[in-house]
Design goal:
Helix content: 40-55%
Order of helices and strands: HHEEHEEHH
Distance between the termini: 43 Å
Oligomer: single chain
Strand order of the largest sheet: 1-2-3-4
Number of helices: 5
């Protein structure tokens, strides 16, 4: 936030307008940056989902899909959907497109699925901020990025 205060630049604004806009920007940043920044980029956003104008679908391409990673794919697309909706976009659907199989599978982007994905992300961020790196051997190990380095991960 300190960097934003220093770099806030509106040369044509009067002092009262500058103060008001700066405060509005500060509030906007607070609403977007409560605990972490999560980045990502949708591969494709299609319009006219279901034949409706201004109705969007997000598609993420995979060179081949792994059935064990389907929950990860769903979480990724739920996060993208949530971000789009928070920006005011009408994201109605999301799909994982397996390029090898030439197959496109829908992902649940219902309000319940989005709320569940938000909880997963919030829990992960909370654990990272608390530096909670306790081993949790089992199913998550198969999808973990650092499993080859972890002494607690089962043999791969």
């Amino acid at each position: 936030m300190a960097d934003a205060r220093r770099r806030f630049f509106l040369p044509a604004a009067s002092k009262p307008a500058h103060r008001q806009l700066k405060e509005a920007a500060r509030q906007l940043l607070r609403s977007y940056l409560p605990t972490a920044i999560i980045t990502g980029r949708a591969d494709v956003i299609l319009d006219k989902e279901g034949g409706e104008i201004e109705s969007l679908a997000i598609v993420d391409y995979k060179t081949s899909t792994d059935p064990e990673a389907s929950a990860d794919y769903a979480l990724q697309l739920a996060v993208y959907t949530d971000a789009g909706r928070r920006e005011g976009l009408n994201v109605r659907a999301a799909y994982v497109h397996d390029l090898k199989a030439a197959d496109r599978d829908p992902v649940d982007v219902s309000p319940e699925a989005i709320a569940a994905s938000e909880q997963i992300v919030e829990d992960a961020v909370r654990g990272l901020r608390a530096r909670d790196f306790r081993p949790r051997p089992g199913d998550p190990c198969r999808r973990c990025d650092v499993r080859r380095l972890c002494q607690w991960a089962p043999a791969v």
